[in-house]
Amino acid sequence: MRAFRTALAEAGELAVTEIRAALSGMEGPVAEAMLFATVGGKGLRAFLVIESARLHGVEPQRAAKAAGAIEALHAYSLVHDDLPCMDDDDLRRGQPTVHRKWDEATAVLAGDALQTLAFQLCATANVTDAARVDLMASLATASGIRGMVGGQARDIAAETATTPLTLDEITALQAGKTGALIEWAATAGPRMAQEDTTALARFARDLGLAFQIADDILDVEGDAATVGKATGKDAGAGKATFVSLLGLDAARARAAELVDSACDALSAYGDDADILRDAARFVVTRKS
């Protein structure tokens, strides 16, 4: 069995290689900002693409464009999320955010271009025409108003709401904001093979929620130097989170339950999915 950390690094490198290739020959601050925004991350979404593909007989090189696509789209979401009109953050992955390193206009354009690059990569993936269409259509849904953008809109609205969100409302919000792209990444493999996505979708839904709970815990317990971004912002803004509603111990317990459920969802794949089980455990033990 390949080590999880090795597989995570390899998948991230495959994704960045595809993004670099797509940007080859491009110069100027927008192209520089695009590449800057895509390096230094964990590469978890790229890893989910590569490993879900492997489970369905799609080798890593054929899955690399889809891995690059999800990392490009995720980077776009972070660049825009950090802008003053949204979270107004100065630090991301231990580095200045794009609008701080360059300027707001460059950050907006870099994010826009990363989003379109994601669909370009899906459109040129080495799979059947039907699979390419499925990848693009499902990514549009995952990243749009029914997914990530919708979740972000609910999150922004909650900041000025007269009453805090309930646990069910936060769960629904995060299923879009965080979970939708994680689910797309984990189901990209069977989509490329044109096979059933049910088991990996269930795995990803539990994984995505556990990931967000871990993020909420890091916002309380982590330090900016280790986490790579500002901490304590949720409490400072008075936002309802899994931690504020459940408490730290109950939040940890809920995350652990979700990891167990995510691992159970992979039973049909047997030992072949052990590296994905390792990923689920990593999500709730990470420090950044």
Features:
16 helices; 288 residues; Farnesyl Diphosphate Synthase; 2 strands
Question: How would you characterize this protein structure?
Answer:
The protein has 288 residues and is an all-alpha fold. It is built from 16 helices and two strands. It has helices at residues 4-22, 29-38, 44-55, 60-81, 98-101, 104-123, 129-143, 148-158, 167-177, 179-193, 198-221, 224-227, 233-237, 242-246, 248-264, 274-283, and strands at 91-92, 95-96. The chain has a two-stranded antiparallel ribbon. Helix 1 packs across helix 3, helix 4 packs antiparallel against helix 6 (104-123) and helix 10 runs antiparallel to helix 11. The radius of gyration is 18 Å and the shape is globular. It starts with a helix and ends in a 5-residue tail after the last helix. The model has no long low-confidence stretch (mean pLDDT 94).
